[in-house]
């Protein structure tokens, strides 16, 4: 029978583990702190920032929110990041993307101290991950990796296909799977015969941004399917969130599958907290929590 990988329950477990570590740090007089910077009024970003704040407080960390006007200048934003880089109470810094068009995202992200870059988007962290060195790992792929390790134990030798080559999901996901000794294929919009490529996968990760594109015809019998997609669609006159995978047909063939919602999504914030904890431990010269990093 197909196993449904319950990301909501897994994320709750990760948050509980983080909370336990935070409580132990507090006994040493250390409180991990996460600063989130939101520029502008993007409605989806406001919801994400609110959820991040609530989750951060729930695990016992300090949450510092910085809400800036949509018209904030690059110089002012960079000056804030410089201040946060120098603030010993702040162990993680996250600048909510997308930024308003007049701000250069790359410049802003690369201004964050790499040791505090809990999104793992700084060019130094990208390079460290790519060369198999200790880094801050992007939260969504880290969450996928945790679920895969939990389900499979060792991933060594498995064929993994990642559909999508974005810098925030596809590429780091592929690097992490390679780091765990999978044989990795990265597919994208120019891939020939995508169905056949995907059918070779023991692990199929969909990060495409196209609602329900990956059907059962793409899935090898017994494969593990990780659906990163979050797509808002209209169906039967109602708004609905669906993944990049057509759940019913894929689940009929897969050995294990993540649902949407309730799969990868909840793991992303849980991994943000895990990364903040890791950053805090590293900055204090303490051992990193086991199982919460790549
Ligand atoms: P991007 O749009 O940045 O990248 C999409 C990738 O999919 C590109 O590499 C693109 O290829 C590829 N692609 C597009 N169409 C096809 C196609 N027909 N066949 C094969 N490949 C195709 O998206 P993201 O990586 O940012 O996000 C992917 C999905 O994950 C989205 O649904 C997003 O909402 C979701 N997401 C979910 C998160 C979570 O917390 N669960 C976090 C982040 C994202 P090419 O490069 O050739 O154009």
Which descriptors would you attach to this protein?
Rossmann fold; binds NADPH dihydro-nicotinamide-adenine-dinucleotide phosphate; alpha/beta; 3-stranded parallel beta sheet
CATH homolog superfamily of the largest domain: NAD(P)-binding Rossmann-like Domain
Binned, the helix content reads 25-40%
Question: What string, H for helix and E for strand, traces the elements in order?
Answer: EHEHEHEHHHEHEHEEEEHEH
If you compute it from the alpha carbons, what radius of gyration comes out, rounded to the nearest whole angstrom? 19 Å
Could you characterize what this model shows?
The longest helix has 21 residues, at 7-27. By secondary structure, the chain is of the alpha/beta class. It has a 6-stranded parallel β-sheet with strand order 1-11-8-7-5-6. The protein contains 10 helices and 11 strands. Strand 9 and strand 10 form a beta hairpin. Helix 1 runs parallel beside helix 10. The mean pLDDT is 97. The chain folds into 2 domains: 28-114, Leucine Dehydrogenase, chain A, domain 1 (Rossmann fold), CATH 3.40.50; 139-265, Rossmann fold, CATH 3.40.50.720. The chain has helices at residues 7-27, 43-58, 74-85, 105-109, 123-130, 139-152, 170-179, 194-199, 247-251, 264-283, and strands spanning 3-4, 33-39, 62-68, 92-95, 159-163, 183-187, 203-206, 224-227, 231-235, 238-242, 256-257. Bound molecules: NADPH dihydro-nicotinamide-adenine-dinucleotide phosphate (NDP). NADPH dihydro-nicotinamide-adenine-dinucleotide phosphate (NDP) binds next to helix 10.
């Amino acid at each position: 029978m197909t196993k449904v990988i319950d990301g909501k329950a897994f994320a709750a477990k990760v948050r509980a583990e983080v909370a336990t570590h935070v409580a132990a740090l507090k006994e040493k007089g250390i409180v991990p702190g996460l600063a989130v910077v939101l520029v502008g009024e993007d409605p989806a970003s406001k919801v994400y920032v609110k959820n991040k704040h609530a989750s951060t407080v729930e695990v016992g960390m300090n949450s510092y929110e910085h809400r800036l006007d949509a018209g904030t200048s690059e110089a002012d934003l960079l000056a804030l990041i410089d201040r946060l880089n120098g603030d010993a109470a702040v162990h993680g810094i996250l600048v909510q993307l997308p930024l308003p068009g007049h701000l250069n995202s790359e410049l802003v992200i690369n201004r964050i101290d790499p040791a505090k870059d809990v999104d793992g988007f700084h060019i130094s962290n990208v390079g460290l991950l790519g060369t198999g060195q200790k880094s801050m790992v992007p939260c969504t792929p880290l969450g996928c990796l945790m679920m895969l390790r939990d389900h499979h134990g060792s991933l060594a030798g498995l064929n993994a296909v990642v559909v999508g080559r974005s810098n925030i999901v596809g590429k780091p996901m592929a690097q992490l799977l390679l780091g765990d000794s999978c044989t990795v294929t990265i597919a994208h919009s120019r891939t020939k015969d995508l169905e056949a490529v995907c059918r070779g996968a023991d692990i199929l990760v969909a990060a495409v941004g196209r609602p329900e594109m990956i059907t059962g015809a793409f899935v090898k019998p017994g494969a593990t399917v990780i659906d990163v997609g979050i797509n808002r669609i209209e169906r039967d006159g109602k708004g609905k969130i669906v993944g990049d995978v057509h759940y019913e047909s894929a689940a009929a063939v897969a050995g294990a599958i993540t649902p949407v919602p309730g799969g990868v999504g909840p793991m992303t914030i849980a991994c943000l907290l895990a990364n903040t904890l890791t950053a805090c431990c590293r900055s204090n010269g303490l051992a990193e929590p086991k199982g919460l990093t790549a």
